[in-house]
Amino acid sequence: MKSLLPSAFCFLPFAFFACHQAPKRAAPAAPVQHSEMRTIDNTDPRPVVLEPPPVLRDEATPPKPVGQPWETPAPVHLTPEDEKVRAELPFAPAMALDPTDGSKLSILAHTPTTEYKGHIYYFSSEKNKQTFMANPDQYAKGLFKGL
């Protein structure tokens, strides 16, 4: 016991000073926020109205127009005469370009045609055929060949 007594006296001053020092002040703590518990009894039964998200109108491409002629082509109804004319053609599909105005047309039995210098020319109207026949060399050069 004698051997413990001197070590106890050495330890007592350290313990005394350690326990009786003034407490260090900590940084002020953030105020504690209390949340209110919501139950079915204290909640408003109406739905919450949310604001719609913002729309970037100037960055989007404009919508495609609806009902344009190239989006909904009119179906071509073929008669037996049309089928016969198309069967005799050396090419398919039965499409042609009018040499006077460059319009694309479907070859049918009543499509105006003419033969000039060994080539058959198809027209979208009788007026275009008459225009071609008035000066065939001007239109036979292939003015619309690049289309």
N- to C-terminal separation?
A: 117 Å
Taken in chain order, the helices and strands follow as HHEEEEHH
How would the global form be characterised?
rod-shaped
Q: Could you estimate the helical fraction of the residues in percent?
A: 25-40%
Instruction: Give the total of beta strands.
Output: 4
Number of helices: 4
> pLDDT under 50 segments (min length 5)?
none
Overview of the structural elements:
The protein is α+β, with helices and mostly antiparallel strands. It has a domain at 80-140. 27% of the residues lie in helices and 10% in strands. The chain has 4 helices and 4 strands, in the order ααββββαα. The chain has helices at 4-19, 80-88, 126-134, 136-140; strands spanning 95-97, 104-106, 113-116, 119-122. The strands form 2 sheets. Strands 1-2 form a two-stranded antiparallel sheet.
